[in-house]
Design goal:
The chain is mostly helical. About 75% of the residues lie in helices and about 0% in strands.
Length: about 90
């Protein structure tokens, strides 16, 4: 092997290493990464926050039913109950 050929190959490797390090240093000096959230993403976040802050139980409806149960005036039709039950069981299968 000739020494000149070795020197040429060594120069190629040194040049490519220099290019890689300069590209890496340019990438680091360009600045920080930035994230932009779309308006749909922002709307989703607002909706998610509103749902998490809302009550799980609607007290206005529950209070009325509780009062009717205490008074003995709350009546559930057996036909309505059976229909609801069958619709729920039917959706499972």
């Amino acid at each position: 092997m000739r020494i000149e050929a070795y020197n040429q190959v060594a120069q190629l490797y040194q040049t490519s290493n220099t290019k890689n390090t300069t590209a890496a240093s340019k990438a680091n000096s360009m600045g920080r990464d930035q994230v932009q959230i779309s308006s749909t993403g922002k709307d989703y976040q607002v909706a998610k926050t509103a749902v998490s802050e809302s009550a799980d139980i609607r007290e206005d409806l529950v209070a009325d039913i509780k009062a009717r149960i205490k008074a003995g005036t709350y009546d559930v039709s057996s036909d309505d109950f059976a229909a609801k039950l069958l619709s729920q069981v039917g959706s499972i299968f």
